[in-house]
Amino acid sequence: MARQQVAAAAAVAAIAGAAAVLASELYSRRCRRLATRVRELEASLAAATEKAAAERRGRSLRKALSEQELSSDEKKKLSKSPKSFPMASIGVVQSCFSTRNGTPRQPLVVPLARATVMLDPARVPAEALEGLADYSHCWILYVFHLNTDLDKMWNDPARSKLKAKVRVPRLKGGKMGVLATRSPHRPNPIGLSVAKVEAVDGHSILLSGVDLVDGTPVLDIKPYLPYSDGVKGAAIPNWLEVDGALAVESIHFSEHFISSLSDCWMHVKKQSLYASADEFQDLVKEVLSWDIRSLSQRIRPHDVTIKDVTDNGGSKIDNGCSNDEDRQSVDPSTSVVYHLHLEGIDVSYRIDQDSNIVVENAALLSSAVNQHRYSYLTWREKVSIL
Question: Which residues are in the TsaA-like domain (predicted)?
Fold first, then answer.
């Protein structure tokens, strides 16, 4: 009888212990769930607080930019100083165009012109690009960051005077109101281009038909909507309707260019957006099909210093002589060499007075070595054009 009582007591104690352990585990689990919930609520509260703070800053900014409820002195100060808006780039362009010279004057005129827009993950989450690949084209808003007057415009705006008229290439030097042109030298150096969306990968977008130079800061991306962006019956001035105003007569590739391009291609093919040297050659032909020389180069192609010089457009001119004192009128088809930088390759060519081009040589640029870029190999599996 005593043994049975002892056994019963031991069983009761074991059950009580197990119950205590179970209760402890349940309590621990509940505590962990509560702790997790508390962290979630804290994160949500922090996000809500930051959103509210951002809205307050936005309201303060709008209030500061508004002339309402300001004193007369404040209104005078505000009227004398330009309004500004906080704005920062959301990404950067990796383009086949290394310099301004050779970059198309308008989008879509060079269908093979490709670029990758690399968005900043800290500013633009990958989810923000969801659905963009379903559009055929998009708008790119960006900064003309290579403008020669940009530093003066931002650092000393009092000295930066708006040029009301600019020279237009199609008018052969004739001037037109800046707001009636696509000139990059604008009241604010903001560009707007349409491009074909080829593929989207994470924070990167592959575009074609671009007129964007490498390193361009991107401000925004918007989808192209044919029903609203394509205006039926839109009119343009007569001077824009001149056919072939900037077109060249013919393009010929020398044997030396083809062999030198083959040598260069061995070094750049792993970081290029083009599948082969032949496709790159097609790009060169499309780019040079439009006369990319500056206005001064087209008007006076032989009036250059005998030594190598660089014009404002970034095109290097070499007249092939060595004596600085020996100046003469020379045939531009034999003495003026122009340079085009594409995909880390320096393409040199000559153009005669009848707009016939001979592409002569390809040389590797030092800046093309060891660049880390999205390439043909990166996009090959994601887009049909490659």
Answer: 87-233
Three-state secondary structure call for residue 321: coil
CB of 324 within 8 A of CB of 312? no
- pLDDT, tens digit, for every residue of 106-141? 999 999 999 999 999 999 999 999 999 999 999 999
- pTM score, two decimals? 0.71
Of 374, 381, 385, 386, residue with least CA distance to 91: 374
Show the beta-strand stretches assigned E in 144-262.
165-167, 175-177, 190-201, 204-208, 217-223, 250-253
Q: Which of 161, 104, 102, 168 is nearest to 311 (CA)?
A: 102
Pick the CATH number of 91-147+189-229+242-304+334-384 from 3.40.50.300, 2.40.30.70, 3.30.1330.10, 1.10.1660.10: 2.40.30.70
CA–CA dist 207, 194 (Å, integer): 10
Burial of 277 from C-beta contacts in 10 A (0-12 / 13-18 / 19+): buried
Angle between helices 277-288 and 255-268 (to 10 degrees): 120
Task: Count CA within 13 A, CB hemisphere, residue 275.
Answer: 9
